[in-house]
UniProtKB/TrEMBL annotation:
Its EC number is 1.3.5.1. This is succinate dehydrogenase. The keyword Amino-acid biosynthesis does not apply. Pfam families: FAD_binding_2 (PF00890), Succ_DH_flav_C (PF02910). Belongs to the FAD-dependent oxidoreductase 2 family. FRD/SDH subfamily. It is a peripheral membrane protein. One of its GO terms (cellular component) is plasma membrane. The keyword Translocase does not apply. Residues 532-666 form the Fumarate reductase/succinate dehydrogenase flavoprotein-like C-terminal domain. Gene3D superfamilies: FAD/NAD(P)-binding domain (3.50.50.60), Fumarate reductase/succinate dehydrogenase flavoprotein-like, C-terminal domain (1.20.58.100), Succinate dehydrogenase/fumarate reductase flavoprotein, catalytic domain (3.90.700.10).
C-alpha cells in the first residue's frame, strides 16, 4: 500500500486554480496541430472535451458506441445543472456551492477539486446560453432557478425536465462544427476494447466497429476516458441499457487505479419496479421534490388497503398521511439529499407502509402545490379565489409549465394521471461516484490516460447532490481538461506521430480478438441477460441501500460463482464479423462481473457508513450514517492484480483545511 499524490497546487484554496493556470506549460497553435488526442465517449463530458480540444487546434478522434453522440446517456438528465451565480439573491456563492458539495458527499471528496468545480460553474451557464440552450426564464427574462436536495438556496438552472437533452444538443453543435472543419474524426458505432501503452504511457486504443465487427488500432499522444458510470451492475437502474463499464475497466486492467468503486448513488425518485420481467427503470427528476410532498399512510391498515386496491390515494385524509421527510428533517423537508430520502423511503416500506402492489413505493403528491399555484394565479389575474375548479386548472397549468414532460412520461408508463392522483416512487441505482482515480490534472495513474465526468471519482465523495453531474461533466470538458492535458502534451511536441505497428498494439489487438472468439465459440445454454439479472439481484440484495459484513462476503462468493457460470454456460449467437448486439452485451457483462467483485470488496473494506452507503453495523443512535474519520477519511484506490479479490489498496488521505468536518445533519 502507498500514499497517492494528488498533485494539488500549493497556496490558498481560492487561488489554487488560478495559480495553476498561470504556471502550466503552454503549447503554441502551430504545435497543437501535430498532437493527437483520443476521446472515448461523447456525452456532455467527452463531447465538450473533444469540441474544445479541437477548437484549440489538437487533432481529435472521438468514439461512441451509439449511432450518434446525441444518444449519449447525458440526454436523460432531467432536473437541471448547478451554478453559483446567486441570481435569486438568497446567499449563494462559490464557497457555499463548494461547502454544500463537500457536505453532501459526507466529507469524502477532495477539497481542491470541488472548489475548482464550484469556481468554474458560472462559466458553464454562460457557455451554454451562448450556444442557445433554452434555459427556463423568469417573467422579466432572467434565467430561472430552482432548488435541489441538500441545499437551502436556489442555484439549479433548468430547461423543464429535459435539461440534459438541451445541454447535449449544445455540445453536439460544437462537436459538429469541429467535425465539419476536419479537426474531429468521429467514430460512431465503435467500442473501445483496450488501452494500448507504449512504455508506461497511454498511446492509443483498440476498438471494434460494432456494425462490421472489424478490429482497429488507433494511436494518439493522450487518451481521455469519458464513458460514464457503471450503475448497470445492478441490471435494473435508471441508466440506458447500453451504458457499461468496459472502457474504464480496461483502463483499470492496464494500470489505472479504480477509486471508491462501492460509492454509488441510490436515487429516491424512480418509478417502482413493476414486475420480474422488467429490464429498465425510469427516473422521475429530483426537481419534482421542489413542489411534490412525499408521504405514506400513518396507519398500516390504510397502506394494506392501498396495496389491495380497496382504497385510492385520495381516499386518505391529510390528517392520516405521514409526510415523513417533513417530520424527520424539518430544516430540509422533502429536499434532503438523495441518500437520506432513499433510506427513509426504504425504512417506511420495510416497516409495512409501502403503497403499491409490491409494497415498495411511496407517494409523491402535487395536490398542495397545484392549489398553492392556482390561488396565486387567481389573485394575479383578479379571478375568483374561491372557485376550486378554476384554482385547480390554473395550478395544473403552472405545474405543466415546470414539469410537463415528466408528468407526461409518468402517465405513459403507469397509465395514471399524476395531476389527479399522486405519483408512486421508490429508490433505485442512478449514478456512480466511484471511478478511475485521477489527480488534480484529471490524469489517472497511467501517464497520458485521463478520465473525466462520471468516469472519474473526483468531485462527489460518498453522495452526489442533485444537478451536479451535468455541472461536473461540462466543467471537466470545457474548462478544466483543456488546460491540464495541454500541460502534459507540452512534453510531446517533438514526439511525432505514434505508430500502430508496434508489438504493443499487435499484442493488445490479439488479446481483444481472442476474447471475442472465446465468447462467440462458447456454446452454452443461457443468454447474456440471464446472468446479468442474476448479478443485479445479488448487487441489490447485498450491495444496495443497506449493507453488512456477512452480506458483502456472501456477495463476493456469489458474484464469482455467476462469473464462472457465465464463462461456462453463456451462449452468444451469430458471428463476430457482423452487427451482433449479444456479443457486445457479453463483453460488457464479462467486465461487470469482474468489477462487481471489486465493488463488494471495497464495500467490505469500508467499515463505516457514509453518504449513500449504510453499513448496518455503523449507525448513529437516531439511525443516520456513522462515519469513521479516524480510519476512513481517505480515497480507497485499488490496483489491478489479476483476480478482483486480489486487488491492492492504495490510499489518498483527505485533508480538510477550509471547512469543519462534522457529523452530517439535515434535521
Amino acid at each position: 500500500m502507498s500514499e497517492l499524490n494528488a498533485k494539488i497546487p500549493v497556496g490558498p484554496l481560492a487561488e489554487k486554480w488560478t495559480t495553476y493556470k498561470n504556471s502550466i506549460n503552454l503549447i503554441s497553435p502551430a504545435n497543437k496541430r501535430s498532437l493527437d488526442v483520443i476521446v472515448v465517449g461523447t456525452g456532455l463530458a467527452g463531447g465538450s472535451a473533444a469540441a474544445t480540444l479541437a477548437e484549440l487546434g489538437y487533432n481529435v478522434k472521438a468514439f461512441c458506441f451509439q449511432d450518434s453522440p446525441r444518444r449519449a446517456h447525458s440526454v436523460a438528465a432531467q432536473g437541471g445543472i448547478n451554478a453559483a451565480k446567486n441570481y435569486t439573491g438568497d446567499g449563494d456563492s462559490v464557497y457555499r456551492l463548494f461547502y454544500d458539495t463537500i457536505k453532501g458527499g459526507d466529507y469524502r471528496s477532495r477539497e481542491a477539486n470541488v472548489y475548482r468545480l464550484a469556481e468554474v460553474s458560472s462559466n458553464i451557464i454562460d457557455q451554454c446560453v451562448a450556444q442557445g440552450v433554452p434555459f427556463a426564464r423568469e417573467y422579466g427574462g432572467l434565467l430561472a432557478n430552482r432548488s435541489f436536495g441538500g441545499v437551502q438556496v436556489s442555484r439549479t438552472f433548468y430547461a423543464k425536465g429535459q435539461t440534459g437533452q438541451q445541454l447535449l444538443l449544445g455540445v453536439y453543435s460544437a462537436l459538429n462544427r469541429q467535425i465539419a472543419r476536419g479537426k474531429i474524426e468521429m467514430f460512431n458505432r465503435h467500442e473501445m476494447l483496450d488501452v494500448v501503452l507504449l512504455g508506461d504511457k497511454a498511446r492509443g486504443i483498440i476498438s471494434r466497429n460494432l456494425v462490421s465487427g472489424a478490429i482497429d488500432r488507433h494511436s494518439a499522444h493522450a487518451v481521455v476516458i469519458a464513458s460514464g458510470g457503471y450503475g448497470n451492475l445492478f441490471y435494473l437502474s435508471t441508466y440506458a441499457m447500453g451504458c457499461n463499464a468496459s472502457a474504464a475497466w480496461k483502463a483499470h486492467k492496464r494500470g489505472a487505479f479504480l477509486a471508491n468503486p462501492c460509492f454509488n448513488q441510490i436515487h429516491p425518485t424512480a418509478i417502482p419496479v413493476g414486475g420480474p420481467n422488467q429490464s429498465k427503470l425510469t427516473l422521475m427528476s429530483e426537481s419534482l421534490r421542489n413542489d411534490g410532498r412525499i408521504w405514506v399512510p400513518k396507519d398500516q391498515e390504510d397502506a394494506k388497503a392501498l396495496r389491495e386496491g380497496v382504497k385510492q390515494p385520495n381516499d386518505i385524509a391529510d390528517a392520516d398521511r405521514d409526510y415523513y421527510l417533513e417530520r424527520q428533517y424539518p430544516a430540509f423537508g422533502n429536499l434532503v439529499p438523495r441518500d437520506v430520502a432513499s433510506r427513509a423511503a426504504k425504512e417506511r416500506c420495510d416497516a409495512g407502509y409501502g403503497v403499491n402492489v409490491t409494497g415498495q413505493a411511496v407517494f409523491l403528491d402535487f395536490h398542495s402545490a397545484i392549489y398553492r399555484f392556482g390561488k396565486e394565479q387567481a389573485r394575479i389575474k383578479g379571478l375568483d379565489t374561491d372557485d376550486d375548479r378554476l384554482i385547480t386548472r390554473l395550478g395544473e397549468e403552472v405545474i405543466k409549465g415546470k414539469y410537463g414532460n415528466l408528468f407526461q412520461m409518468y402517465q405513459k408508463i403507469i397509465d395514471q394521471d399524476p395531476y389527479k392522483t399522486p405519483m408512486m416512487i421508490y429508490p433505485t441505482t442512478h449514478y456512480t461516484m466511484g471511478g478511475l482515480w485521477v489527480d488534480y490534472n484529471l490524469m489517472t495513474t497511467v501517464p497520458g490516460l485521463f478520465a473525466i465526468g462520471e468516469a472519474n471519482f473526483s468531485d462527489h465523495g460518498a453522495n452526489r447532490l442533485g444537478a451536479s453531474a451535468l455541472m461536473q461533466g461540462l466543467a471537466d470538458g470545457y474548462f478544466i481538461l483543456p488546460y491540464t492535458i495541454g500541460d502534459y502534451l507540452s512534453q510531446d511536441i517533438g514526439t511525432g506521430k505514434i505508430p500502430t505497428t508496434t508489438i504493443e498494439f499487435e499484442e493488445a489487438e490479439l488479446q481483444v480478438t481472442e476474447r471475442i472468439h472465446r465468447l462467440i465459440n462458447n456454446k452454452g445454454s443461457h443468454p447474456v441477460d440471464y446472468f446479468h439479472k442474476k448479478l443485479g439481484t445479488i448487487m441489490w440484495q447485498y450491495c444496495g441501500i443497506n449493507r453488512n459484513k456477512k452480506g458483502l462476503e456472501t456477495a463476493m462468493e456469489e458474484i464469482k460463482s455467476v462469473r464462472l457460470a457465465f464463462w461456462e454456460n453463456a451462449i452468444v449467437p451469430g458471428t463476430a464479423e457482423e452487427f451482433n448486439e449479444e456479443l457486445a452485451k457479453a463483453g460488457r457483462l464479462a467486465d461487470f462481473l469482474e468489477l462487481a467483485e471489486l465493488y463488494a470488496k471495497d464495500a467490505l473494506f469500508r467499515e463505516e457508513s457514509c453518504g449513500a452507503h449504510m453499513r448496518e453495523e455503523f449507525r448513529t443512535t437516531d439511525g443516520e450514517a456513522l462515519r469513521n474519520d479516524t480510519d476512513f477519511a481517505h480515497v480507497a484506490a485499488w490496483e489491478y492484480k489479476g483476480e478482483p479479490r486480489n486487488a491492492l489498496l492504495h490510499k489518498e488521505k483527505l485533508v480538510y483545511e477550509n471547512i469543519e468536518v462534522k457529523q452530517r445533519s439535515y434535521r
